[in-house]
Every structure is written in structure tokens, then in C-alpha cells.
Amino acid sequence: MPNKPMLKDLMKTHGVSRRAFMKYCASLASVMALSPAMVPRIAEALENAPRTSVIWLSFQECTGCTEAITRSHAPTIEDMIFNAISLDYHHTLQAASGHAAEEAREHAMKEHWGEYLVVVDGSIPIKDPGYSTIAGISNLDMLKDTAAGAAAIVSVGTCAAYGGVGHADPNPTGAVAVSEIIKDKPIINVPGCPPIPVVMTGVLAHFLSLGIPELDELGRPKAFFGNAIHDRCYRRPFYDKGLFANGFDDEGAKEGWCLYKLGCKGPTTKAACATVKWNNGVSFPIEAGHPCLGCTEPDFWDNGGFYKPLSVPSGDYRRLGLAAVAGGAAAGVAGGLLAKATKAKAAKAHETVDAHDLEKSS
Amino acid sequence: MDCKQPNDQTSAEMADVLSFVTTGNARPLLHEIRHALDKLLAIGETTIIDLGALPFGPGDARELEDILGQGEIDATMTIMGRSHVRETGVPGVWRIDHFDEEDEVQSRFIEITFMPDILKTQREDAERGLEHLRERLAELEGNRQT
Amino acid sequence: MNNEAFDLLMWARGPAFDIAIIIFLGGIVLRVVEILVLGRKKDMAPPKGNPVGQGIRTVFSRTSPPEGLVKFAPITYIGGYIFHIGFFIAFFFFAPHIALFEDAFGISWPGWGRAIIEGATALALLALIALFYTRISDPIRRSLTTFDDYIVLILSALPLITGYVAVNKLFGDPTFMMALHVLSVNALLIAFPFTKLMHAVTFVMARYYNGTIQGRKGAES
After folding, report:
1. Which of A23, B3, C101, C111 could form a disulfide with C95, with the two C-beta atoms 3.0–4.6 Å apart?
2. Physical contact, B and C (3 or more Cβ pairs within 8 A)
3. Does A36 touch chain B if contact means CB atoms closer than 8 Å?
4. Measured between CB atoms, does A18 come within 8 Å of chain B?
5. CB-based contact (8 Å) between B25 and chain A?
6. Does A341 touch chain C (CB under 8 A)?
7. A–B: how many Cβ contacts below 8 A?
8. Residues A165, A60 contacting (CB under 8 angstroms)
9. Which of C21, C31, C34, C177 to mutate: most A Cβ within 10 Å?
10. Helix (H) or strand (E) holding A39
11. What's the rounded Cα separation, in Å, for the pair C212 and C55?
12. Residue C45, in any domain of the structure
């Protein structure tokens, strides 16, 4: 399409100077953990990128992800690209609703068929599609319809990526992740409850500039989900020294020691919280004194309890252990008595043998 | 900050103690800078080092600052938030710190170059400036004619 | 989408641990009770000495080696001490393990630093290797070694190796290595009552029994 608006021109009309663009590209590379040598490539790709249409679908969700992404207070460039330039449909944010909003979605789809980006937050109920509908269209149908013409899908938040709270036991709605339904499109998972805003926009910018980022086995961009929280945590030295908080108000908690024994899931959780942090780098849960819940991992709601240390058994082992002691004692008495009886029987059946008998038998 | 609320005196002491916390990364970084400066002088190649990419303690920052020092140029730029560009005491080695609109650090770089690109006026910006100037002049002269 | 490594960890610390702890506790109690029920014949003659006191004393005194034997079999004795002390330190003073005891019994104690725990683990492993070496290099010991002994040796080494690898992220996915660590402990728990590992419980009974015989002084009837 020759008359497609280019990102470069759109940015110019929004008053973004070339210097601001350079600064943005440099910071973007830094945030995405790319080498500064990549900056010219990012800049060139972004400059020559056409305006990409973004369709944001909200299914079984709490709007926390949308809240998070709109909380990047400063009008940064990624925010501008995303909100002002690319976003064609987002029923929570747009003024139109119901059928009028659906028309906007259909229009965007028709216009950019095969090229638009679909962002999904929320899980999809498949037990009964009636559990969640928009303008009378079930989530399942809307996802299938919209995904058919998408270039790629970004599953934002743990619900869209792995099913999240909807998928938690006993999963009354039969909630599933996007990847359970759509199998023929590239899917980028950006889990988190919610994800860090800069991670969401960073992934989007990566998609626009350099295409689909390198993903791990759980479909997450390695740049943001490459390291365990535990390995980047500023409280890690306390773990290594054996200094732990044993409660939320004890001396250890006040000293800022490691929260492992309060159930911190940092060792098994991959996310950028400890490095990128939240609210423009102010803090993150562990810094605020709360153990990591592991919200970027599949089934984090059912992973043995938020406040149970990772090393503690998650089953009902105490009751079972007591039962085993009782059962073992009973079996031991029975076994002992049986052995005694056998011994007595053997003693009774004992015949005296002397040397003559032995000689006879040999 | 942790739950503890230190008073000013202890936090000053704390900052002093912290300034000795090092990861030992300053020394290899300084060597990397030396190599880059060698390369700049030999073949004119510019090197950019992302300070956000390596673990760096307050003590490392201090050691780096002690050795590089302050040079002749110190520029503050206002580009969607503040940006701080300054030449260190080693000419050819520049510190570039980008801040966002809320003055939080966005990214930090060391650039080994004769002139950081971001300091130069960009062609597109100059073109837009020219356009703007022409418009204003046209307005001005149009007004005078009527 | 599932994180298979984490699911394995959840299985290891959930159902698998439940099964292991049932077999471990039930098995120990079964074997101890069985031994006690079998009992000894009643001794009608009054002892001249103090068998109970000597029995209790022997439980502790046998912890130090008999004179001359350290020189005779240095690797067995010194390696044995290092392994047991190292294993004990790693098991009881690593904070995540203490968290387990706290959850089970409600008691806790301060953990030790990583340097000590990892040093103890490494020493225990080196000792195990040395003990294994003396077992196979000495023809007499080798002929005395049963299949059981090799199993016990491997089962004692695995938790140390997997734990060390998981904490230091030497190789493999750390969550997967943590799952392997818990599984290896489960295997150790299951094997415990039915192998020579049982000595960790029965050594008290055996030493006491031997002590009482020595402390008895006088004819038995």
C-alpha cells in the first residue's frame, strides 16, 4: 500500500524531534538489553516502519493490565506510538461501545488484514462461551475471528499467557490461555499480574522495530524474562549469608533480609522486576517487603501457597506421617509377634541330633 | 527503601559506607575504555558502552568518577526529559545520562568519540527549523504588506 | 502452557513427598518395633555391674574410634567423619531446610552462610568419593560390598550433588534441578528403612545393647 502512513511522519506531526527519537532508541536498546551497536538498526527499522494497527482484546480479565499500561505517566515515545498512533480498538479505553466499537474492530481488520497486531488480555472461557461475551460475541469466537488476519499476537498478562486466575483450580469457567486456542500464529507471551508497563511497551516497540523478539520455552521475550528474580535481587547477599526474615514484623524483616522463608518465589520466577522495577524504577514487591508471588509463571495461583517456602512440602504430609507412624507400629508388632511364633514353632519341632544321626544320614 | 526509616545522620553514614561497595567491575570497564580510545585514535571508530548492562555498585561509580573526572564540556539537554552530556577529564570519553520527564534515570552510556551524535543538530530537526522560520517570516512579512 | 520443570517440582514436593514420608516413617517404626517385640530372654541373674549406665555411655563413647584403627584405615575413619559431619551441616543448617523443619515441627534455628554450607557439601562429596574408592580398590572390601551398599552410596550422594547444582545453577534449568533434588531426597527417604541407611536410627539400639552386655559383669542366666 503506497499511501500507508509511515511512523516517521506520524512522529513528526506529534512534534517528536530527531534527538528525542535518538534518545528513545538508545534507552530502548538499554531496556531490551541489546548492545548499543544495535541502536542504528533499531532507529532505521522504526523510521521505516509503517503505522501498525493494534487491536486490543479484553476477555476474562480485571483490567489490571490496561490500568498498568496507561500508568506510564510521562508521554514517552512508546506510549505515543502505542496509544495515539496504533491503537485502533480497545473497548475499555475507546469512547465507543457495543456494536459501534465492534465496527471499529472490523474496519481495522479489513483494512490491515494479515498485518495487524492483536494484543489480548484475559483468559478465554471454553466450558460455556456465554460466561464472557462482548456485544453478544463470545470471547472464543472473537479471538478466532480476529486472530485469523493477525501478523502476530501478544498475550499480555498471565491470564492471556497461561490462563491466570481464571484457570486456577477448580477453573469453573474452563478458562484457557490464548496459546491453547490459536496454534497457527506467532504468540509473544508477556506474563505478569500485571506485567511491568515498560516491559509491555518495550515488547511492542521491539515488535515494531526488529520483529518478534527471542522467546524462551514459555513464549516470553528473553530480554525481560531471561533471569530469575533471585539472581538479580538486591536481597540476595542476605540469602547467601543465611540471614532471613521469619515474619513480616520481626528484626529480619526490619533489617531487609531475605524473604525466602516467607514464601518468596524469586528462585523459580523469571521476570525483570528486580532490575527494571515498577513505577519508573521506584521499587518492586520484594523491596517493599513482600515475597515474590511468582506471577509471571504458569499456574502461580496453585503453586503450593504464596507464603509457603519453596522448600516446604506442599501436601498434607504431617497427617499422613502420623498415620504412617501408627500403621508402622501396628505392622511392627504384628511382624514381631509372627516372628516370635515362628521361632516358638521351630523350637517345638526341634529334634535332638547327635553325631550318630549325622553319620547315618551322610 | 526498606521499612526502616533512618535519620539523616545514619543515612549519610550509610551513603558513605555504601560508596565503598564494589563489584570490582570498574577496573575492567576502564580497560575497555582505554582500548576503545586506542581504537578511536587509530581508526576513528566510535564505541558506546551501556552502563545499564553491567552490575555496578556505588563504589564502582565512585572509582570510575575518580579516574575519569570532569572535562571541559558539560551540557544539559531538554529532550523529552533531561539528558546530561559531558566530556570527562579524559578527552574523547563522554558520559551520557538520559532521564525521563520525571527525572528518573532512563539509560546511561559511556561514549568514546570525538563528538557524540546527540549533541549535533540533526538534519531533520534543522529542516523543520528552516520550515518554521520561513513560516514565521512569511507571517511577519505578510502582516507588514497588509 | 505449562512449566514442566515447576510441575515436576510441585509433584516432588507434593504427592511424591507424601508417599516418601509415609514409607520412611512407617518403615522406620515398623523395623524398630519389630526388633523390640522380638526382645531378649528375661535375665534372671542380678547383674554385678551397671548395665544401663554402661549402655548409655557406650552410645556416645563409640562415636570416637578405637585406638589404632584410624591409622589402620585412615580413609574409612576420617572420610566417614567428614561425610557425616558435612551431610549433617548441609542438612540441618541450610535455611531452606530449616524452613521445612519449622513447617513440620514448629521449631527453628538460625541458618548458616552459603560458604559454610557449600564447603560442607563439597567436603562431604569428596569424602564419599574417597570412601567409594577404598571400597573398590581394596579387594577384601570389594568382595564384602553388596549391591545394597552401592545403592546407598549413590542415594546419599545424589541429594548433595543436585542441591549443589541447583543452588549454584551449574547446569540445567534451576527449577528442574531443584525438582531433581527433592526427588533424590524422596528416593533416599524411601530406601532408608530397608537398607543400611537404617543405621542412623538403629545405631543407638545396637550400641546400647553392646554396652549393657559389657556393663553387666557376671553370668547371665
Report:
1. C111
2. no
3. yes
4. yes
5. no
6. no
7. 89
8. no
9. C34
10. helix A39-47
11. 4
12. no
Give per-residue pLDDT as tens, A61-108.
999 998 888 776 445 666 666 665 678 888 888 878 888 888 889 999
pLDDT average, residue stretch A3-11: 69
CATH match of A229-361 with 4.10.480.10: yes
CATH of the domain at B71: 3.30.1370.140
Provide the pLDDT confidence category of residue B17 given band limits of 50, 70 and 90.
low
pLDDT score of B51: 86
The reply to whether B77 touches chain A by the CB within 8 Å rule is: yes
Q: Please, are residues C218 and C45 in contact by the beta-carbon 8 Å criterion?
A: yes
Tell me what ipTM this predicted complex has. 0.85
Q: What is the mean pLDDT of residues A322-343?
A: 89
What is the residue extent of each domain of chain A?
A: 51-225, 229-361
Q: What angle do CA A22, A45, A188 make, to 5 degrees?
A: 110
Instruction: Using the predicted structure, report yes or no on whether residue A202 has a pLDDT greater than 70.
Output: yes
Q: Could you identify the residue written with the cell 517345638?
A: A348
Q: How many domains is chain C partitioned into structurally? A: 1
Note whether A309 contacts C9, CB cutoff 8 Å.
no
The percent of residues in chain C predicted with pLDDT above 90, rounded, is: 62
B21-53: burial string, b at 16+ Cβ within 10 Å, e else: ebeebbeebbeebeebbeebeeeeebbbbbbbb
Residue B28 in any domain: the answer is: yes
Which domain range does residue C99 map to?
A: 4-38+55-217
Residue B133 placed within a domain: no
Task: Please check whether residue B15 lies inside any domain of the structure.
Answer: yes
Inter-chain touch A30–B118, beta carbons under 8 Å = no
pLDDT of the residue at B14: 59
Q: Residue C13: inside a domain, yes or no?
A: yes
Q: Which of A213, A233, A232 is nearest to A223 (CA)?
A: A213
DSSP code per residue over C141-206:
HHHH--HHHHHHHHHHHHHHHHHHHHHHT-SS-HHHHHHHHHHHHHHHHHHGGGSGGGHHHHHHHH
Residues of B in contact with A74 (CB under 8 A): 80-81, 100-102
pLDDT, average across residues C114-139:
94
Nearest to C175 among A268, A327, A333 (CB): A268
Strand order in the sheet with A87-90: A87-90, A54-58, A116-121, A150-156, A187-190
How many domains is chain B partitioned into structurally? 1
Per-residue model confidence as pLDDT tens digits over A292-332? 999 999 999 998 889 999 999 988 888 898 999 999 999 98
Q: What is the pLDDT of residue A40?
A: 85
CB B50 to CB A22 under 8 A? no
pLDDT in tens, A269-291: 999 898 878 877 778 999 999 99
Domain that includes residue B68, residue range: 8-119
Q: Which chain C residues contact residue A226 at CB under 8 A?
A: none
C111 touches A: beta carbon within 8 Å = yes
Question: Would the pLDDT of A50 be above 80?
Answer: no
Chain A residue closest in CA terms to B120: A19
Q: Which of B1, B3, B5, B39 has the highest number of chain A CBs within 10 A, making it the mutation to test binding with A?
A: B3
Is C136 part of any domain?
yes
Note whether C170 contacts A: Cβ–Cβ < 8 A. no
Among A77, A281, A289, beta carbon nearest to B104: A281
CA distance C46 to C216: 9
Q: pLDDT-based confidence at B1, cuts 50/70/90?
A: very low
A51-225, what's its fold? Rossmann fold (3.40.50)
Touching subunits of C (3+ CB pairs, under 8 Å) are A
Compute the distance between CA of residue C90 and CA of residue C157 in angstroms, rounded to an integer. Answer: 12
Interface partners of chain B (CB pairs < 8 Å, 3 or more) are A
Cα separations in angstroms, A181 against A113, A119, A174, A175: 20, 15, 13, 11
The answer to whether A19 faces chain B, any CB pair under 8 Å, is yes
CATH number of the domain bearing residue C33: 1.20.950
At residue C119, φ and ψ (nearest 5 deg) are -60, -45
**Whether A263 contacts chain C with CB within 8 A:** no
**Greater pLDDT, A118 or A207:** A118
- Asked if residue B89 is part of any domain, the answer here is yes
